[in-house]
Protein: Retinoic acid-inducible gene 1
Amino acid sequence: MTDLQKENLKLWRHYITRILRPTYIHGFLTSFFSPIDTEQILSLEEKSVIKSAELFLDCLLKLEEQGWYRAFLDELRGADYTGLEQAIENADFTEIAKLEEPKKLLERILPTIVSNIKPCEVINFMSTCLRSRECEEIIQISKRKGSTAGAVKLLDCLQRSDKSSIFKEFHLALERCNCSVVTLLLSPDSVEMKTIEENSSNSMSNDVEMHYSEEAESMNTSSPPVSNTEKFQENLIAVENLELRDYQIELAEHVLAGDNTIICAPTGCGKTIVALYISEDHLNKAPKGVKRKVIFMATTVPVYEQQYNLFDKHFKQTSYKVCGLCADKVDSSPVQMLVERNDIIVLTPQILLNCLKDGRIPSLSLFTLLIFDECHNTTKNHPYNVLMKTYMDLKLGPKTSSLPQIVGLTASLGVGDASSLNDAVNYILHICANLDAESLSTVQKNVVELNKYVFVPKKYTRQTTRRRKDPFADIISQMMAQIEAMARSHYNIDNLSHIQNRSHGTQKYEQWIVEVQKKCKVLQMDDIEEERRICRALFTYTEHLRKYNDALI
Structure:
């Protein structure tokens, strides 16, 4: 370690502290720093990542131990900070510096981005530039706090990235997820305003994707309502005994016959019991000398934890081994070894997807049965659907790989945004096709027994006519006028667009929003901080106006 290298680290302090997240190189901290310094750095990161990185760099420059500099570079490479590692190694931060302008643009248009993307979809197309750990953090934040918080976390990852291709990949991911509002701002030259104006005569349709999940099922629904503790004990008894009712056996028939099947039955009927039965039967019927493996996927961590506990409880009585993979331990776990040593793996679909992408799990053909809990989410860019695309690549590719059997569990497949019976049927068929389902299993022969244990509410549909007077629309329009006035208090937004005559709840108003945001993106003022503040405010106001305008259309 030379004095020149230390001086270089000081010189590049701005870049290093705005990229490095000390928790990602935890191994280096524990190897070279004192426990007190390590604890201070990690605890400070919870409040401010930059301040934590600055403290880390201060401690780093005080090190005198032989070999720490090379160990630091090796740790950066191991933590996938390849861009930063190469920049320090070659004493050349040119590529890192080129990221500054796109990062400033992201900061400016942040309100528009977080309001118009689904982060869990976008990250499916950014695996080469985002770490598995970052993807899992984005997913968990989205689950706990919603898509907006998840999008903020995604942008934080982009702002701290050292990958030269990160923004190109982000742009391509947005295009694949049909986030046209954001891509328009990221590449103004590629999508001209005339494209929108040409379509102004068409009514705007919003593509809404609904993701929903069931409440946790009670495994034994034959008894009157009981306390949560009693319910949990009954669940465990049901799992241990694994005694299926006739309607549950009926639900499993197509699966036991070897078909790819979607099991559709009401919440509370015990679909998890059916899944346990199917899994055990599948493993028991393995031909001599053939090793079968089952994957059970749950879309959320709470459901994953519940289902893992039930699988673990039941299969402890057998010779089959169960393991669970969750976000907080998957990075440090020997995934390939765990998969090889266990018969049943319970996890979230994103973890399986990440392991397939980074090679820790070589192929889906390693498994013989895949069970998708809440399989109605197998649409668009949901991890379930991305996994099934991988499955279809295997199926349609060279016939050298065996295919796992597919089983989906759901209370309802839904109808999407269908407005007619034909559209609803097509939507259901589309879900079935996505899951390569040969059979759709519902209770037909044992409906009376099902109704004894599960209350199925009746649905009534009444058609209504459009209101002649709409006070709700009037209120929203008034709110939009107030927001416009607030925006004008920061900047004269009327000068940012040539569209003057615009009505709330129209495509023309949407055009006005797009044009204002495009002009705001390139707005320049003498005071940089004032420019940043005004642009951030205008993007926030226009995003609220866009949502209200969509509600009126």
User: Anything to note?
Assistant: The mean pLDDT is 85. Residues 228-453 form a domain with the Rossmann fold fold (CATH 3.40.50.300).
